[in-house]
Amino acid sequence: MAADHSIDAARWRAMFDQAMARIAGRFKRVEPRATARAFVLALLSGVERKNCWRLAEHAGHSRPGPMQRLLRSSRWDADAVRDDVRAYVLEHLGADDGVLIVDETGFLKKGTASAGVQRQYTGTAGRIENTQVGVFLAYASSRGRALIDRRLYLPDASWCQDAERRTRAGVPDQVEFATKPTLARQMITGALDAGIGASWVTGDEAYGQDPGLRALLESRAIGYVLAVACSRRVRINQGRTTARADAVADRLPASAWHRQSAGAGAKGPRYYDWAWIEIGADRHRYLLIRRNPSSGELAFYLCWSPRRVPLSELVRVAGTRWCIEECFQAAKGQVGLDHYQVRHWTAWHRHITLAMLALAFLAALAADATPARAAQPSRPIRSTGPIDLTVPEVRHLLGALLNPTNSSPRMLLHWSNWRRQHQATARRSHYRRRLASPSTG
């Protein structure tokens, strides 16, 4: 193993014990505490589909009941565990260059009973689908990135104003309609109040268009680089006139553009042409413009900082926004963020929170195994030796180091029979319902 890569099975087990000890006090009884540990351990396993049935089978349980109770009826506070996850991420990934990133992701669903589900646009599918939408906050630094908060978006007319539907899905009475930028403001405020040491916030157009979010960040002296539409009007000429962002870009001379990298991508540095102009009169407010060198496509960002910063700093923060997309990909692909089969409000938040803990643990292991990365975030590509440990590779290694299989042939057959029996019951129920109402479907 290369000298700057440290894989120590005993240390990784100890770090897992420490991570679970951090949340142990949130569970007053021994059974849910042990089940939560088994749940997270199974999320970190190579189980293909991480729902309660599969997680229970992996844990060596004879039925999914304990896992289902953990998500639905056991007494524990998912928001308190969320606070523990946030503190854990800061402890292991915190750095001076930390950035908070806000974005949303969709969870495709069937039916109408899952909390917050309706036909709505989701970037996950790139179109309108029957889906739940979660708004998330991520923290990213040179040491790694992880999700630190979450909110389930509850549509107004179809959910917030339907008392019967809310009751069936377990939506608390105090939950009211909130726009996605409002949910973002809540999460950012919570992170800052908790001591998250980030100097910047970034997000896409859905959040850049919200004046309340920008005002909040300025009042907290937190800089921002937030995407906006090309039609956004900005103040130029020291605030004396306004113009559309795309019209401003069209008038820029060739000397205004600077080619810089927005960070490392899967295939190397992500180079774009960048331009910036001061807007307003306080000399800390900018319109940042990104141009694709190949296609000429433009993107626009409203930027503010409590102090003067170079263009390279704004470019760095703008490029950091993609870290949350990588978090979504890793969380869904590695720890089953979207594998749940629950409908209840509480169960959704509990599953998501435990998946966030699993992802944070993977990110902490990756950072711990490559300590030189924090000291040299821009070190050149090595000509020999392996790349730094990635979250997927760490998760793969954990399958052998922390997750020895509990499945004997007898247990495998038990679960096969159990699943097929329940599937038969469900099939009979569906057939009876269809036969009773032959005109439907």
Automatic annotation (TrEMBL):
Pfam families: DDE_5
Limits of the Transposase IS701-like DDE domain: 26-238
GO MF term list: endonuclease activity
Coiled-coil regions listed: none
SUPFAM superfamilies hit by this protein: Ribonuclease H-like (SSF53098)
Segments passing through the bilayer: none
Keywords associated with the record: Endonuclease, Hydrolase, Nuclease
Keyword Hydrolase: yes
Tagged with keyword Protein biosynthesis: no
Protein name in the entry: DDE endonuclease
Provenance organism: Streptomyces cellostaticus
